Amino acid sequence: MSSIPSPGPRGFSRRTLLAASAAGLALVAAGCTSAPPDDRELVTGAQADQLFDQVGVQETLVAAYTAAGAADPALAGEVAELAAQAGEQLERLRAAAPGASPSSVSPGAPASAEEARPWLRAQVAAAATSHAAACVTQSGARAALLGSIAAGLRGQDGPLA
Predict the structure, then answer these.
(1) The pTM is what?
(2) Other CB atoms within 10 Å distance of the CB of residue 110
(3) Is 30 inside any structural domain?
(4) For 66-73, which contacts have Cβ atoms below 8 Å and span 24 or more sequence positions?
(5) Is the separation of the CB atoms in 102 and 59 below 8 Å?
(6) What is the domain extent for residue 67?
(7) How far apart are CA 147 and CA 107, in angstroms?
(8) Which of 31, 59, 76, 109 is deepest in the core (most CB within 10 A)?
(9) Any domain includes 155
(10) Exposure of 27 in the CB half-sphere (CA atoms within 13 A)
């Protein structure tokens, strides 16, 4: 004896379809309304100025890597990756501070090849301290960026020791 195949699964009823459509429409409408801007993301003039200052701090650090490498070519090879990281951090800061233009900054230069490493280490520490201090007065993504850069620079202390 052959069995009769059972009927396939039943589709949605009109009532279920109508309820789902209404719920979907409500979600779409809620998603299309904009929330008021978050006051924490609004940039004050003082915050913008401070962010511009941090771009200058990072430019000084990038120049310090160049000066230390010129004083001690062996050190330049050792810290090439760290110097590249400092350059990338500078580009991220410039992107976060629209209108910040490159400036010609000079951190000075180490007195000798023997002084290049400790001098560069002090320059990195000073930049990290500056970024960390500025991070506290910023908010949102700007604070996160400065904090991240400060932490990254603190991490460079080990290879420079």
Answers:
(1) 0.71
(2) 22
(3) no
(4) 67/106, 67/107, 67/108, 67/109, 67/110, 68/110, 68/116, 68/117, 68/119, 68/120, 68/123, 69/116, 70/109, 71/109, 71/110, 71/112, 71/113, 71/115, 71/116, 72/110, 72/113, 72/114, 72/116, 72/117
(5) yes
(6) 52-97+111-160
(7) 22
(8) 59
(9) yes
(10) 6
Tell me the two tokens of residue 104: 């010609």
Q: What is the C-alpha to C-alpha distance for residues 64 and 108, in angstroms, rounded to an integer? A: 8
Provide CB contacts within 8 A for 138, sequence distance 6+.
47, 50, 51, 146
Domain membership of residue 38 (yes or no) is no
Q: Cα 69 from chain centroid?
A: 26
Asked if the structure places residue 59 within a domain, the reply is yes
Distance CA 147, CA 124 (A): 14
Q: Are 138 and 50 in contact (CB under 8 A)?
A: yes
> Could you report the average pLDDT of every consecutive run of 10 residues in the chain (161 residues)?
59 61 56 52 76 93 96 96 96 86 78 95 96 91 93 93 89
Give the distance from CA 125 to its chain's centroid: 19
Total domains in the fold of the chain: 1
Token pair 């629209």 in the structure block, residue: 98
